[in-house]
Amino acid sequence: MTDPQHPALLVTSRRAQGCPFEPASELTALRERSDLPMLSGEHPFLGHFDVRAVTRYADVRAISAHEHVSPGTNVNRDGPRTLFNQPGFLLSYDGPEHARLRRMLTGAFTVRRLQQMRPWIERIVSAQLDAMQEAGPEVDLVAMYALPIPSLVICELLGVPYTDRADFQHRSAVLLDFTRTAEEQVANYAAMYAYMAELVARLRAEPGDSLLGEVVTKHSDDVTDEELIGFGNLLLIAGHETTSNMIALGTLALLRNPEQLAAVRDDDEVTTPAVEELLRYLSIVSQIGRHATADLDVTGHEIAAGEGLSLSILAANQDPELVGPDAGLDVRRKPVPHLAFGFGPHQCLGQQLARIELKAALPELLRRFPTLRLALPFERIDFRVLSPVYGLMSLPLSW
Ligand code: HEM
Question: How remote is the CA of residue 2 from the centroid of ligand 1, in Å?
Answer without folding.
Answer: 26
